[in-house]
Amino acid sequence: MAASLAVDVDPTIWAIIDGKLYLNKNANVQKRWDADRPGFIQKADQQWPSVLNK
Questions:
Q1: Quick count: other Cβ atoms within 10 Å of Cβ 17?
Q2: 14-17 and 20-23 strand pairing
Q3: DSSP at 36
Q4: pTM over 0.85
Q5: pLDDT tens digits for 21-46?
Q6: What Cα–Cα distance (Å) separates residue 50 from each residue in 29, 44, 46?
Q7: Is 46 or 52 the better-scoring residue by pLDDT?
Q8: Which residue has the higher pLDDT, 38 or 49?
Q9: Is the dihedral of CA 39, 44, 45, 49 positive or negative?
Q10: Residue 24, burial from CB neighbour count under 10 angstroms (0-12, 13-18, 19+)
């Protein structure tokens, strides 16, 4: 979502932060996401409206 598109996810790669479930595409993406969780969450939150309208 942070990249402004929806992708398939691996349901075994996840995190719960502040009561929200976050899924990632694969282990490599998860490693990058772990390095800047707040930044990726902020980007994803900003992208939701545009992705939902597609």
A1: 10
A2: antiparallel
A3: T
A4: no
A5: 999 999 999 999 999 999 999 988 88
A6: 22, 10, 8
A7: 46
A8: 38
A9: positive
A10: buried
